[in-house]
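Thought: the user wants the 3D structure for the chain below. I'll pass the sequence to the structure tool as-is, report back what it returns, then summarize two notable features.
Action: structure_tool
Action Input:
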Amino acid sequence: MSDRRCVDELSLEELEHLVLIKRRQLRQQRLQRLVAHRRVKDKDLLLADEVLALSSDRMTSLAIPSPTPEAHPTVVVTPPGAQRASSSSKPSKTRRVRDRLLLALELLILGALVSVFISSYQTLHTLNQEVTMARAASQEVVAPTPTPLVNFDRLPGGHTPPNSANGAVPDVPLHLQKWVQPAPAQPLPAPRAGRPTRIVIPAIGVDAPIVEGVSWEDLKKGAGHLPGSANPGERGNMYIAAHNDIFGEIFRHLDRLELGDEFFVYSGDEAFRYVVTAKRVIDPSDVSVMYPSTQPIATLQTCYPYLVDSHRLVVIGELAR
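Observation:
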């Protein structure tokens, strides 16, 4: 039954007991609101509050002084997100081991990439040095003096020996010499164009020597002219190859040439102008670009793409009239 006495009729102990009951009711209402808003993980705090309230009631009924606030256990309400953060702030031992292994793997991959870069740089540096040495050696070679195969001052033949009394007489007998007339002057044949010696491509800044041959050693010295292919200005296919990433990188930017661009192939001091008419990327096994042609063309070839060299880039130019 409810107590209908007024406050003045209650004793001090009863007033304290009523205050404790009121505080407990307010505290339970507050905790229930936290649970309803999911700010408390479970209802353990409600149970703890019940235990605390019962102990307070028992202490009050025994007329034992209430303990100080410091003596009560402190209940800390922690949001679920903060609990997850605190639990995740202490990673497990397995997670720490995994993170260390991943870090070691990343450092290993980084070291491998750095070593590959250094090795590639050293290889390119060595090859470029070989180019310089090969060109210097080719310039130091002195052209040999041609030695005649025979030491005659007169071609074989005639009717009298050179040691005869009157010396050698003309090959034509005397009674026939009046019938002999000097042959009419014959026009000299047009000189045949010599081998290519230099290539100039203004659009990509190329000015390099051309050597005869397309072997590994030949291409160290410059662009190589395929033996047996046409010479500058001749009818046929003049085939010239050079590297794009080693030995001076002569054709490094050959892919930048566009249709209509021009390039010049020299034979000595004479220049022959060609205009680009085709450009394509082909498989290394497609040797049809080396076949002869009925038109005077020049085929420029290099590896492609840069530093990969899985295909070949071919630029074809026609002789400008």
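Final Answer: Structure generated. The beta strands are 198-201, 206-212, 223-225, 236-241, 262-267, 270-282, 296-304, 311-319. The chain has three domains: 9-87, 92-130, 198-319.
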